[in-house]
Write a structure and sequence with these properties.
The chain has about 200 residues and is an alpha+beta fold. It is built from 5 helices and 7 strands. The longest helix is centred in the middle third of the chain and has 20 residues.
């Protein structure tokens, strides 16, 4: 854990929220920290600290996010590009957990900025998978099994998310995205005899 991520282990409001999640009936099966891609991007842990929790029965990911001062765009407000990046990552992690794939890429991303997010603040990101195209509701329940037929029926995932204050009283952002699972897409096209470009 980076020194910057320690803030997610010391703030009383964050600790209270995590304790409550862990005592819920559907305890998260994922608690992890993002690794930096490089030292020169919005996801550098010295800019944005993130901690993710996945709730399988809801197909929902909750993220505790802290924006440091160096995410500033307008004075004392988090840059919109940084916010969009965090929403993209949160929704992608949700899709990765549901699809059991690490090869999901963003095909479309939409972000609505409702209120400015102050620098040096905590927010709660909640990302949830929408309906899975080409899969019935009965089959959707079997997606936890990566070998099931339902797993092979689709490679597109719609997600949506919202970003609020920790207590949920302030809505900062909403977003939606379409993700493509490249591995499932390649498998589907190769089994049907179609080229990947089709």
């Amino acid at each position: 854990m980076s020194a910057s991520a320690e803030i997610l282990h010391t703030d009383p409001s964050v600790l209270e929220m995590v304790a409550r999640w862990k005592t819920d009936g559907d305890a998260p099966d994922l608690e992890e920290y993002d690794k930096p891609i490089s030292d020169e991007n919005w996801l550098d842990p010295g800019r944005v600290a993130r901690r993710w929790f996945f709730f399988p029965s809801e197909r929902k990911l909750r993220g505790l996010v802290y924006y440091f001062r160096n995410t500033e765009g307008p004075r004392a407000v988090v840059h919109g590009g940084c916010i969009a990046t965090v929403l993209d990552v949160g929704m992608a992690r949700c899709v990765n957990k549901v699809s059991n794939s690490e090869r999901c890429v963003t095909a479309n991303l939409s972000v609505n900025y409702k209120k400015p997010v102050p620098c040096e603040s905590f927010v709660l990101l909640e990302a949830q998978l929408g309906d899975i195209p080409n899969v019935s509701r009965e089959e959707q329940g079997s997606r936890e099994d990566p070998g099931s037929a339902a797993t092979e029926l689709t490679y597109k995932y719609n997600t949506n998310c919202k970003v609020t204050s920790l207590d949920g009283t302030v809505l900062f952002n909403t977003g939606s995205a379409l993700f493509v699972d490249l591995a499932a897409r390649e498998k589907m096209h190769s089994s049907s005899g179609k080229g990947i470009a089709s």
